[in-house]
Amino acid sequence: MEDVLDPQVPERARRRTYKAKYKRDFLTEYDSLDRQGRGALLRREKLYTSLVGKWRDQRDKGVLVALARPAGAPPASIAEKDAARLRKENLRLSGELDTARQVIAIQGKLSALLDQLSTNSSATSTEK
Fold first, then answer.
1. Are residues 91 and 78 in the same domain?
2. pLDDT value for 88
3. The domain containing residue 28 runs over which residues?
4. How far apart are CA 128 and CA 123, in angstroms?
5. Between vectors from CA 113 to CA 109 and to CA 118, what angle results, nearest 5°?
6. Which of 32, 33, 39, 112 fits a 20 to 30 Å CA distance from 12?
7. Average pLDDT, the chain
8. Both 60 and 93 in a single domain?
9. Per-residue pLDDT averaged across 36-43, rounded?
10. Residues 47 and 88 in one domain
11. Are residues 39 and 56 both part of a single domain?
């Protein structure tokens, strides 16, 4: 039997985003309703009371900009991006330097061993 995907369910869930005007209008309507009306509004808009509480906190602070601000970390500045890139490059170069130091140490030991072997073989060949 072949697996059939349900066309009603998206492959990957997406977070909903809300414009500041929508939030403001929703809160105005929400605050004007009684308990049953609020429940019906939440169901109709498919929202949770926790989200309404966050929007109220933002509104009560009197910052409409906060209502429009997307969730998550603020975008990094150019200086922060450059600093992160330089840190990453510094780590990479430090790793390469450590590898080069190990190679140089091994080459020094190999050179000393070859010197010793050549000295031993010349001493052995002069004894014969």
1. yes
2. 93
3. 20-68
4. 9
5. 150
6. 39
7. 85
8. no
9. 94
10. no
11. yes
